[in-house]
Write a structure and sequence with these properties.
Distance between the termini: 161 Å
Helix content: 25-40%
Radius of gyration: 51 Å
Number of helices: 5
Shape: elongated
Structural class: alpha+beta
Largest sheet: 5 strands, antiparallel
Length: 246
Amino acid sequence: MLSLLTVVLVTAVHVYAAQFNVYHRVVQSTSTRAPFVQRGTLNLVGSNANLESVSTLSEDLARFTQSLNSEDLGGALYQVALQRPEDSSQTEWAVSSVKLCHLSSSTAQTFHFYLSGEDKPYAVNYFLSPVDHSGSCPRQVSKSGAERVSQLNTTVLLRRPSSPPSPELKTPPPLTPEGQVVQPIPEKSWLQKYWFYIAIFFVAIRAFTSSSPSAIPAKQYLLTVLAGPPDEEGKQGGGGGARKQA
């Protein structure tokens, strides 16, 4: 029982040890020299994840925006970065950027962390909502609005690798010994399919008409009808002769 409990505790410690640092900063669109500051810690627990923010999140954003002029707010970017264990410098971190001006009008933020086959995050995408479809900044942008990032509804999503659907390959056409595509046999026409039955029909009609009275010449047939059958002609021949008188 003690050994089983030890295994469970070691496994739990191993799962909770999957932690990765997330950083953020505010930069001008033409400059990337501002240093990153830790924003929080990503904790992976099996198939679940949560982002634990630092307690100085709002103060850090206020410090970021202090050096910006009002006219620079529209071009400034808010960046979120993921530090991976194999990264040796900030230039190798996975970075996602949004316009700083959207922080003042948004009510929710979403983190998409993409996992490798070993369930280790290697990329991040950061989204704010709602945001105008054109991507333009609100008409009124204030520095203090960016400090609301700690009050936004936060959603953390994990994206694991998935294979695309297999393509549906058609069966290749059959080939001749010469390597040419076998041409399909052309479909027969209606006459080619049923000529035999048509021929039988005409032969039957021919045989029937050759044995009928219509096959006899018209003149001969008329004389035959008028003369009548030979047996009837004998019966109609002479009548009884006159009796001799005694």
